[in-house]
Every structure is written in structure tokens, then in C-alpha cells.
Amino acid sequence: MTDLQKLTIGKALNLGLRRAMEEDPKVLIMGEDVGKLGGVFRITDGLQKDFGEQRVLDTPLAESGIIGTAVGLAVRGFRPVCEIQFEGFIFPGFDQISSQLAKLHYRTQGKVKMPVVIRVPFGGGIGAVEHHSESPESLFAHIPGLKVVSISNAVDAYWGIQQAIKSDDPILFFEPKRLYHSGALRAEIDTDGTAPQVFSSQVVREGTTATVVAYGPSVKVALDAAAAAEDEGHSLEVVDLRTLSPLDLGPVFESVRKTGRLIALSEAPSESSLTSEIAARVQQECFYSLEAPVLRVTGFDTPYPPAKLEEHYLPDLDRVLHAVDRSLAW
């Protein structure tokens, strides 16, 4: 029976978590204010009421303790889903993530699995300061043993969180917080349908003039830029990375071989970032197809600014279109 629902990203995540908990009693949710409050963004709203305090746990303000507890639960056969309230709060848990969570499967020669999901609301655009608006995904993509993904739409949110929970690998699941409740991004989802494969790159808009590769909140910016560029006679192809580690660059290479140009887009600072890696790999694999250097549109190499300045910090439609013009003028 088809059960079509038009969902925001936030509601899709909530229903995806609910479905995972219904299907597997070993799935637990834990984090700061995830229970009675339903999370500061209300992503876990109603789950403690329906599944009880034994499965939806309000934790102390201690990210190291949250992750360390999840590691122990995973050893005992549970599938913990940890929420980090804001991305900038993740660093007290960095040692547990990098030294324990990412390494135990390898360290035990495969005997111990780590089916832990860490949900991370990330990115700017909500009028908040540093620790509440950052993009630290490149740091975790550099750590062997972790999978890092980022969703940009409700369909991927609903199916992606379920696929992450079913995985036996530790996954950092980055969610674009400013898009959680965007009515413009509501999508019809057959919640009882066949799950698509989410953790691979996907062309979300076809084009021929230039390729724009993005992930998370930047995908919407790329799509808006592509719509605006069409009025100027340019056809931009947009690729949503979706998986940040391991990177799935096959569709990006294929697109660049067609368009000859690439703009890599991200809110994160540019130095030593995912856009750096994309630029390096594309010039290695597509050198003779490139008509211009790979250009990057990113946040600046500064701490995240006060709210009144964030519109100048975040990459926007105009900065993407300017990069397209620079590429075409090469």
C-alpha cells in the first residue's frame, strides 16, 4: 500500500528514526534534550513518549560521555544514534570518535562492529555565532574508519537515516539545520516504498555549460544558482555529493568530462577542505577535459562571524554565478 506524505527534512528525519526504532528494538537514541524536549530542532519530537526513557535517553552535557557510552553499547549489540546538539559541541567527543569509534573494527580484526550513528546539525544561516553555525565535516572525512555523509533533501533524510542505522560502520550524519523546516523543500515520500541507495553522488540537475558540485545546505544554493544562470543562457549541471567519506567522485568526473568546467561549493573554510580534495582529484582524473581551472566557492578561513555578518560569510547565489563567469572567461 502506497503511503505518500509531503515532508520537510526535519519531519522526514523524525519519521525515519521512528521507523528504525519500530523495526529494531536495539536502536537507541541519546543526546542532550532529545527526550522530553524532542531536541532543540524537534527532530526527535514524540519519540521518548512513544518508545520510553529506556530507548530515548536525555544525557548530561558531555559529548565525550555520549560517544563513549555509545561505543560500549555497540560492543553489546545495540545500535545507538547520538545527537550532537550543535556541530561546534562535537569536539569534546573528538577523541572518542577518532581514537575509539573509528578504530575498534580494525583494531579487533573485524570481531567488533561499531554500528553507531552520530547525527550532527551543521552549517550557518540561523543567526547564531561560533559553535552553533560551523562546518567541521572535513576534519572527520580525514579519519580512516569513519563514514561521513550529508543529506540535502527530505527523501535522502528519510531513507538515509535508516540506512545509516542499519550499517555496521560508524557514520557521522551531517544535517543542514537551516533547512530542517523549510516548506520550500517539502517532498513527497512513499514511506512504505522501496528504499533508494542514498550514499552515493547524484546528478540533481543536468547541464552542459559547467558543473557545480555541492553537499548539504550548499546544494540548494547550487540549484538556485543554476536556475538563475539559465536566464543568462548558461546550463549548469549540479551534483549532490551526499557521501563525503569515502568520496564518490565518479559522477563528478563524468560530468566534468562533459562540461569542461567545475565549481566546488561548500560553507566550510577553503583551506585543507573537501573542496580542496575534489579539486585535486578532478585535475588528476580529468586534466585533458578541463577548459578552465577548478574554482572553489566556500566560507572564509576565519571563525564563524556574528549573525549580522553571516550573509557576507556564507556562499550565496551571486558568488556561485561570479565563479561561473570567471570560469567561462578563462
From TrEMBL:
<dbReference type="GO" id="GO:0016491">
    <property type="term" value="F:oxidoreductase activity"/>
</dbReference>
<protein>
    <submittedName>
        <fullName>Alpha-ketoacid dehydrogenase subunit beta</fullName>
    </submittedName>
</protein>
<dbReference type="InterPro" id="IPR009014">
    <property type="entry name" value="Transketo_C/PFOR_II"/>
</dbReference>
<dbReference type="GO" id="GO:0000287">
    <property type="term" value="F:magnesium ion binding"/>
</dbReference>
<dbReference type="Pfam" id="PF02779">
    <property type="entry name" value="Transket_pyr"/>
</dbReference>
<dbReference type="InterPro" id="IPR033248">
    <property type="entry name" value="Transketolase_C"/>
</dbReference>
<feature type="domain" description="Transketolase-like pyrimidine-binding">
    <location>
        <begin position="7"/>
        <end position="182"/>
    </location>
</feature>
<keyword id="KW-0786">Thiamine pyrophosphate</keyword>
<dbReference type="InterPro" id="IPR005475">
    <property type="entry name" value="Transketolase-like_Pyr-bd"/>
</dbReference>
<keyword id="KW-0560">Oxidoreductase</keyword>
<dbReference type="InterPro" id="IPR029061">
    <property type="entry name" value="THDP-binding"/>
</dbReference>
<dbReference type="Pfam" id="PF02780">
    <property type="entry name" value="Transketolase_C"/>
</dbReference>
